[in-house]
Design brief:
The complex is a heterotrimer.
Chain A (H helix, E strand, L loop, with lengths): L17 E12 L2 E8 L12 E6 L3 E6 L2 E3 L2 E7 L3 H7 L6 E8 L12 E7 L3 H13 L7 E7 L8 H8 L5 E6 L9 E2 L16 E6 L2 H14 L6 E4 L15 E2 L2 E2 H4 L2 E3 H8 L5
Chain B lengths: L1 E4 L1 H13 L3 E8 L2 E6 L10 E6 L2 E6 L23 E9 L5 E4 L8 E7 H14 L7 H9 L1 E5 L10 H4 L11 E6 L6 E6 L2 H8 L4 E2 L2 H16 L9 H6 L5 H9 L5 H5 L6 E7 L5 E8 L9 E2 L2 E2 L4 H20 L9 H4 L7 H13 L2
Parallel strand pairs in B: 2-8, 8-9, 9-10
Antiparallel strand pairs in B: 1-11, 1-12, 2-3, 4-5, 6-7, 6-14, 10-11, 13-14, 15-16
Chain C lengths: L3 H7 L8 H8 L2 E6 L4 E3 L7 E7 L2 E7 L3 E8 L4 E2 L13 E4 L3 E7 H10 L1 H26 L9
Antiparallel strand pairs in C: 1-8, 2-7, 3-6, 3-8, 4-5, 4-7
Helix pairs in contact in C: 1-2, 3-4
The chains are: A alpha/beta, B alpha+beta, C alpha+beta.
């Protein structure tokens, strides 16, 4: 066949952003901001938890940011300011216009844990992409077994969503453990790496699904500590971060072995990821 | 249906395509190489020229004959006419009130004809189709240009030293995916061209050319030329070698090739199937007008895998390994085909002459050692 | 050319063990050599041996993309590489790489665990020594964590 059949191609150009407006803005930490974005154009499909959007700062560029929550058509994203694009996004004020493309990637798929115990382990900014799992879990609590949230941060001042963590903790049927890597003596909570909390989680490991999110080292050690405790490896899910430009599997930047992290991830089962991360790319 | 034309027939075909409103891209000599460029007349074809190609080496060499297709792989890939080096994705303005307006109207795409594309490069189009025409994410520029490009392929009679299309099963004679295919038949008398059609549009074009019917001797000669080309292949890629390389990510040969590789990216720029790109936002000083461009990129660049804090692949070794294993191994997992068509450009245009067929063979050899 | 027994007997870690015990351990050992930058073990791989370092230097590392490998600690002559072989699930916790040419005696973990099972006194001696090693490393790590030399982190 000389001429490829284009009748089944996607209609809108995948690289054109939709316009959104900042409805509200919250300064979470010194370098971290949460934005609520409402659609100006027709709203994009609502992302599933675990998916991400490409947020466009006019004139500067795009960055892949995981979904932190939704409120109807409003998208909630938590952004750490680490470079040109995220700096601009983090400086956006209510009323400012931002471009959005998405949703992209694989979701956490909380439904796979229905009837099972659930562990959500989050380190640092990793709490943002798992926040939709937690809000969803809380909203339909009776569908799941025991649920344990294990949250780690560098110091008490670096804890994200502090008010919400306290709200989650107020649920009698939710186990919420918080730990920090270091703290002054005025901190009365746990100090130590978040992986140490695994032993404490009130779960039946063989019947548990775990969602782990944070820096790659934390996810690796978190996954192995869960598996050491008896959680089946194929019930452990992590979310990878890679350089992304197109988010549709064309630009090639996010490749990890045969996977395009933007399209085959970012949420991946541990048995898929483990052998790939073992190839040390120095 | 197949016909035979003389040398004039090539120009007649070119004019026919031009009259159809097409920009004809064909091999032309420029800057000391044969490269696919816009051509307007058959006289611009590289009659009497071939190339001498081996690792890190390219020279034009006169043949002393009137053959037009005596060369092998042209210097630049044809993909640049379908997925250009730079593509404008959108323009946007931001008003004083902060309101953004986006203009993503795709520009009028040229109607193209590829004249004299070789079998390996033709195979590369089929491979790029699987990447860029995926129904879940289609590249609009590639799709628009690809849908209408008229393809006149040409068989290779004299492969270059760097060619290995035979072992990749992508050549030296085009088998499918073309509108017309030309086989140059040099002989004692005037050169003849055997042309067959591979599509309805091709049949229509054939019917309009001044021609004579093909005879058995033409087909025989073509078969002879094909066999000669296969026998003259410069090298081969053995299918068992790439998996052996993939199974040994810590093989010392990777360190060895990393010592030689300059990470210059020439291989990716000249490869007909490399598709990686990046996006750039170009904004005026008042930050009210911006353009987003898609630009070719190479996995050999240091910040190809950049995240805050650094790049995931910093060493030349990891970048070379990523490129090679993607091209020869994981491409199969992603797209059900090899990413390599055996054109040999990466060998010719590598300043230090790295030969990927030799690299994977070396790693496979070690597996066989006791 | 020293025998494995001699090499072990010279090594400070095994100081105080009776000759028969050293001979027993030597039965699980062999001489090995690592080239500079050679990877010795990988995170999560089965912990099937440990090494008694004689010369050279080994870096214990964690791969932290995109920052690359972070060296946690280096281990040198007179020290031991490999603790995870002692305790289930017998998998390496970190990566280890020879920084320079390194010579060591490699001791087979399964062989040694079997011997410790058969001879609890031997097992007790091994565990005492390893417990001390782990305590020392933990203490050192905590000191490192305090980042004593820095003013502010950035």
């Amino acid at each position: 066949m000389t001429r490829p059949d284009l009748s089944a191609t996607a209609a809108p150009a995948p690289m054109t952003p939709s316009r959104y407006r900042v409805r509200w803005r919250r300064q979470d930490l010194d370098d971290t901001v949460t934005l609520a974005l409402e659609p100006i154009d027709a709203p994009l499909p609502s992302p599933e938890s675990g998916q991400f959007n490409m947020l466009w700062a006019f004139g500067i560029g795009e960055a892949p940011i995981s979904l932190a929550g939704t409120d109807g058509d409003v998208l909630i994203h938590t952004i750490r300011r680490v470079g040109g694009v995220t700096n601009a996004l983090g400086a956006a004020q209510p009323g400012d216009e931002i471009g959005v493309r998405g949703p992209f990637g694989t979701g956490w798929n909380l439904d796979r844990a229905i009837g099972r115990d659930v562990v959500v382990m989050a380190g640092g900014l990793g709490l943002a992409p798992v926040r939709p799992i937690i809000t969803d879990l809380v909203a339909r609590r009776e569908e799941f077994g025991r649920a344990s949230l294990l949250i780690g941060a560098r110091t008490p001042e670096d804890l994200l969503y502090r008010d919400e963590i306290e709200e989650w903790r107020s649920h009698l049927d939710l186990d919420v453990e918080v730990t920090v890597d270091s703290a002054p003596a005025t901190w009365r909570g746990d100090v130590g790496v978040v992986t140490r909390l695994v032993g404490r989680a009130p779960i039946d490991p063989a019947n548990t699904t775990a969602f782990v999110c944070g820096p790659e080292v934390m996810m690796r050690f978190g996954a192995t500590s869960l598996i050491d405790r008896g959680v089946p490896a194929d019930e452990v899910f992590v979310s990878l971060e890679r350089n992304m430009h197109c988010a549709v599997g064309h630009c090639g930047h996010c490749q990890l072995d045969a996977l395009f992290v933007c399209r085959d991830g970012a949420v991946l089962a541990w048995p898929t990821v483990e052998p790939l991360l073992k190839v040390r790319e120095r | 249906m197949a016909i035979v034309v003389g040398a004039d027939g090539l120009n007649e075909l070119i004019q026919l395509l031009r009259a159809d409103g097409r920009t004809v891209i064909g091999p032309r000599i420029r800057d000391g190489v044969i490269s696919p460029e816009e051509i307007e007349h058959g006289d611009e074809l590289p009659r009497g020229w071939t190339e001498e190609q081996h690792g890190g080496h390219y020279r034009l060499v006169p043949t002393g004959t009137d053959e037009v297709f005596a060369s092998a792989t042209p210097a630049r890939p044809w993909k640049r006419f379908l997925q250009p080096e730079r593509t404008l994705l959108l323009r946007a303005r931001r008003g004083s009130d902060g309101a953004i307006s986006i203009d993503a109207e795709p520009p009028e795409q040229p109607r193209l004809a590829f004249f004299g594309i070789r079998s390996c490069d033709l195979a590369s189009l089929g491979i790029l189709d699987r990447v860029l025409l995926d129904p879940n994410a289609t590249d609009p520029t590639y799709a628009a240009r690809r849908a209408d490009v008229f393809i006149v392929a040409a068989a290779c009679n004299t492969p270059a030293n760097t060619c290995f299309c035979a072992s990749m099963d992508t050549g030296p004679t085009p088998r499918a995916g073309y509108d017309l295919s030309i086989r140059e038949l040099p002989g004692d008398e005037a050169i003849e061209y055997l042309i067959d059609a591979g599509s309805e549009q091709g049949e229509d074009a054939l019917a309009q050319l001044t021609s004579r019917p093909s005879e058995q001797r033409h087909t025989d000669r073509a078969t002879e030329m094909h066999a000669g080309a296969v026998a003259a292949m410069g090298r081969e890629l053995r299918s068992e070698d790439p998996p052996a390389a993939a199974a040994q990510p810590d093989h010392p040969r990777w360190d060895d090739v990393a010592e030689r590789c300059l990470a210059c990216g020439n291989c990716t720029m000249s490869c007909p199937t490399c598709f990686c790109s990046t996006t750039e936002d170009h904004t005026d000083l008042s930050a009210t007008e911006t353009e987003r461009w898609r630009v070719w990129d190479s996995c050999f660049t240091l910040d190809f895998t950049h995240l805050h804090g650094g790049s995931v692949r910093t060493s030349t070794k990891s970048r070379y390994r990523q490129w090679l294993l993607h091209k020869l191994v994981t491409w199969h997992d992603q797209f059900d085909t090899s990413g390599c068509v055996g054109c040999g450009r990466c060998i010719t245009w590598c300043p230090v002459g790295i030969d990927l067929t030799a690299e994977v063979a070396a790693m496979a050899a070690r597996q066989e050692d006791p | 050319m020293k025998s494995i027994s001699d090499l072990l007997a010279d090594h400070p870690f095994f100081a105080g063990l009776p000759v028969e015990t050293i001979e027993l351990l030597a039965g699980c050992g062999e001489n090995v050599r690592f080239a500079a930058d050679e990877r010795i073990l990988t995170e999560n791989d089965p912990a099937d041996r440990f090494w008694v370092l004689r010369t050279g230097r080994v870096a214990l590392e964690v791969d932290d993309p995109p920052r690359g490998p972070l060296v946690i600690e280096t281990i040198g002559p007179g020290e031991l590489l490999g603790v995870s072989w002692l305790l289930p699930p017998y998998r390496w916790t970190y990566d280890a790489r020879a920084v320079e040419v390194t010579r060591a005696v490699a001791l087979d973990a399964a062989c040694l665990r079997d011997k410790c099972d058969d001879d609890p006194i031997l097992g007790y001696e091994m565990y005492k020594r390893f417990a001390g090693l782990v305590r020392d490393r933990l203490h050192a790590t905590r000191l490192q964590l305090m980042d004593l030399y820095g003013n502010d982190a950035s």
